[in-house]
Amino acid sequence: MILFDLIGRQVVGEYGDEMKKLAQMLLGLISESLGLPCSSIEEAVGEIYQNITVSYYPPCPQPELTLGLQSHSDFGAITLLIQDDVEGLQLYKDAQWLTVPPISDAILVLIADQTEVSILSLIENAS
Amino acid sequence: METASRVELIVKGNLPEVPSQYIQPPEARPNLHYSGDAASIPTVDLSSSDSAREAIGDACRDWGAFHVINHGVPIHLLDRMRSLGLSFFQDSPMEEKLRYACDSTSAASEGYGSRMLLGAKDDVVLDWRDYFDHHTFPPSRRNPSHWPIHPSDYRFMLLLIHLLVLTKCYISRLIDFI
Lengths: 127, 178
Description:
The structure holds two protein chains of two kinds. By secondary structure, chain A is α+β, with helices and mostly antiparallel strands. In chain A, 39% of the residues lie in helices and 19% in strands. In chain A, strands 2-5 form a two-stranded antiparallel ribbon. A two-stranded antiparallel ribbon of chain A has the order 3-4. In chain B, the strands form two sheets. Chain B has a two-stranded parallel ribbon with strand order 1-2. In chain B, strands 3-4 form a two-stranded antiparallel sheet. Strand 5 of chain A pairs antiparallel with strand 2 of chain B.
């Protein structure tokens, strides 16, 4: 196992498997927090697709004019993000952009569009 | 395949100014003098699902985002993933990276790119970012041969071959001895 850990492609595969387990567990806990059965959101979202994106933000000569990534919401079900120790990510809340300080060893969970829409329709159907 | 338009190449070109297609409209530009208040998003401990469930419910309602700790993903895997990513962008030569170039004409293609979801349109403002996208699930989409071989992997394979050769020498000498 230690030998295989040294190969990059194996790391990506394992990372994907572990993150998928965590994503499914979180969708289950979110469902239950709404008083719904554990599998509700996963079933509403449908077939699972997983991508792992590694982002690289090179130094910029005029950082006041550019954005590493433009404002957006993620279109998937759930995003699990690990940052390095450089701040940069911001969240929009109550009409302002707030910086998310990186916490080492923690994973940032972002509820994405499909889950948000699923929750709304699940709650509507339940009431 | 996408032509070699990567942010890294612009940086290496030492241009005094960023190219115009990367310049955000004034209302979207970041405020460098004030980076914004820290988002006090909750940190949820996943070691107990009972207490986590309630905390997650609150976090989803208030923020739509939260940190998790004791999440079960081995920390060494997180560290390894980060260092592999950095090594691909910083240690691999551009021609090696471009072997994995994504297809810019399709919206979410796998590989090395810079225009995720922006497609080939000319009139969009570009992100100051390069990325590598891996497709990892379902298994029908997972093809590790589309993923980079890292310089450290080559070193590892050389070491393995070296060890095999040494072992073979040793065994043949043993056989000679017998």
